[in-house]
C-alpha cells in the first residue's frame, strides 16, 4: 500500500509492517539470526536408537518435536543465565553502567529464568527411562499461563533498545560489548540478540506446539490438551502483541517535540497504535523520520537533545483521512525530488511513500 497526498515523489523505507491501519502483528520484528550451538542433537541421536524399531515414523516425529521443545527450553535457560553472568553482572561490578540503566535495559529478564526452568523440569520428569515421552499436553496447559509475565518484559523492549543504543556511544560500553562479541561464549551474538531471545522464543511456541500436535494421533489422550494449549498460547501471544504495540506507541509519542511548545495534536495523543515508522529520504540523502499512527501521519526530524534521541515535528501532521491508498506495481514510480518541495503547499503535484509488505 502507498499513501499519497498532494506533493512530490520521495521514497519511504519502513521499519515495520502494517495491514492498512490495523495493529502490527508482533512477529513484524525480525527475529535475531541465532547462531546454532554445535551440540544440537535430534531425539533419535540422543537416546537408544534401538527404540526406534518399535516406533512408527509418525511416533518418532512426535518424539523429535517434543524433544525440540525441551531442548529449546534448555538452550533458553542457558542463554538467559549467560546474559546475566557475562553482561549485566560485570558491567555493574565495573561501573560501566549504573544499576538503574542496567535495570532498564535488562528489564525483568531475571524473573523469566525460573519460569523456563520449571517447564524444563516438568518435561524431563515426564520423560521415560528410554527417552520417550507419552504426554506433554497437560504440562503445557498448566504452565502456559505464567507466560503472561512476559507482558512487562516485552513492553519494555523499545525503551531498553533505545537506551542500549545510546549507551553504545560511551567508549567503555562499546569496548566491553565488542570484547564480549569476540569471545567464544557469545557465538557471535551481540547483547541485544541475547535480550531479544525471550521474545523470539515466545512467538515460536505456537509453531512448536502445532508440530507436536501434527504428529499426535487423533485418538491419543494428549490430543485434547494440545488443542487447548495451542489456543492458550495464541491468545497469550496476541495479548502481549497488543500491549507491546501500545507500549511502543506511547514511547514514540513521548519522544515527539512539537513545533510550538505546549501545542499538541489530539489525533496523536489519542493514538494507541503505531502502524509503522521509518526513515524517509530523497535521492540526495536528506532524511526525515515518519510515523504512521492509527489516525495521523507525523513527519519529524531526528535530533539529539540532552544526549537523547528525540523527534521534532517537521511539518503539520497529516490526518489519515486525508491520505489516499493505492496499490502500485514495481517500476511504476519515479524516485526523486526534494524533501523541501515534497512538503510544500503545492497541491498540484503528488507525493508518495512506498511501503514494502
Overall description:
- This protein starts with a strand and ends in a 15-residue tail after the last helix.
- With 357 residues, it is an alpha+beta fold.
- Helix 2 (57-93) packs antiparallel against helix 4 and helix 2 packs antiparallel against helix 9.
- Strands 2, 3, 4, 5, 6, 7 and 8 form a 7-stranded mixed beta sheet that branches. It has a two-stranded antiparallel ribbon with strand order 1-9.
- It has helices spanning 43-46, 57-93, 99-106, 109-126, 137-143, 150-155, 157-167, 171-181, 191-214, 223-254, 266-269, 339-342; strands spanning 2-4, 11-14, 256-257, 274-281, 287-293, 296-305, 308-313, 318-319, 324-326.
- The model is unreliable at 1-35 and 336-342 (pLDDT under 50).
| Proportion of strand residues | 5-15%
Shape: globular
Main beta sheet: 7 strands, mixed
The helix tally amounts to 12
Distance between the termini: 8 Å
Nearest-integer average pLDDT: 81
Structural class: alpha+beta
Number of DSSP E strands: 9
Specify the helix fraction band.
40-55%
Return the string of H and E elements. EEHHHHHHHHHHEHEEEEEEH
**Rg, Cα atoms, Å:** 24 Å
Subunit arrangement of the protein? single chain
> Low-confidence stretches at least 5 residues in length (pLDDT < 50)?
1-35, 336-342
Amino acid at each position: 500500500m502507498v499513501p499519497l497526498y498532494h506533493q512530490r515523489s520521495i521514497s519511504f523505507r519502513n521499519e515495520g509492517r502494517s495491514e492498512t491501519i490495523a495493529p502490527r502483528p508482533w512477529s513484524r520484528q525480525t527475529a535475531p539470526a541465532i547462531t546454532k550451538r554445535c551440540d544440537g542433537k535430534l531425539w533419535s541421536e540422543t537416546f537408544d536408537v534401538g527404540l526406534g524399531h518399535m516406533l512408527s515414523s509418525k511416533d518418532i516425529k512426535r518424539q523429535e518435536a517434543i524433544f525440540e521443545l525441551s531442548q529449546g527450553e534448555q538452550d533458553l535457560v542457558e542463554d538467559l543465565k549467560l546474559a546475566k553472568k557475562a553482561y549485566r553482572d560485570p558491567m555493574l561490578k565495573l561501573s560501566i553502567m549504573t544499576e538503574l540503566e542496567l535495570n532498564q535495559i535488562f528489564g525483568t529478564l531475571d524473573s523469566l529464568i525460573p519460569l523456563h526452568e520449571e517447564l524444563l523440569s516438568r518435561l524431563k520428569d515426564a520423560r521415560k527411562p528410554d527417552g520417550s515421552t507419552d504426554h506433554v499436553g497437560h504440562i503445557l496447559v498448566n504452565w502456559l499461563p505464567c507466560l503472561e509475565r512476559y507482558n512487562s518484559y516485552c513492553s519494555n523492549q523499545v525503551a531498553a533498545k533505545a537506551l542500549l543504543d545510546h549507551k553504545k556511544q560511551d567508549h567503555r560500553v562499546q569496548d566491553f560489548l565488542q570484547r564480549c562479541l569476540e569471545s567464544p561464549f557469545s557465538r557471535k551474538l551481540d547483547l541485544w540478540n541475547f535480550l531479544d531471545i525471550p521474545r523470539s522464543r515466545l512467538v515460536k511456541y505456537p509453531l512448536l506446539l502445532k508440530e507436536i500436535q501434527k504428529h499426535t494421533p487423533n485418538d491419543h489422550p494428549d490430543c485434547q490438551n494440545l488443542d487447548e494449549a495451542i489456543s492458550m498460547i495464541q491468545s497469550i501471544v496476541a495479548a502481549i502483541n497488543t500491549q507491546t504495540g501500545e507500549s511502543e506507541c506511547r514511547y514514540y509519542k513521548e519522544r515527539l517535540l512539537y513545533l510550538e511548545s505546549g501545542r499538541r495534536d489530539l489525533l496523536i495523543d489519542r493514538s494507541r497504535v503505531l502502524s509503522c515508522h521509518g526513515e524517509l529520504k530523497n535521492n540526495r540523502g536528506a532524511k526525515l523520520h515518519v510515523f504512521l499512527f492509527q489516525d495521523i501521519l507525523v513527519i519529524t526530524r531526528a535530533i539529539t537533545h540532552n544526549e537523547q534521541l528525540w523527534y521534532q515535528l517537521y511539518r503539520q501532521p497529516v490526518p489519515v483521512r486525508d491520505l489516499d491508498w493505492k496499490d502500485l506495481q514495481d517500476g511504476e514510480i519515479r524516485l526523486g525530488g526534494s524533501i523541501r518541495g515534497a512538503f510544500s503547499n503545492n497541491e498540484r503535484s503528488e507525493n508518495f511513500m512506498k511501503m514494502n509488505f
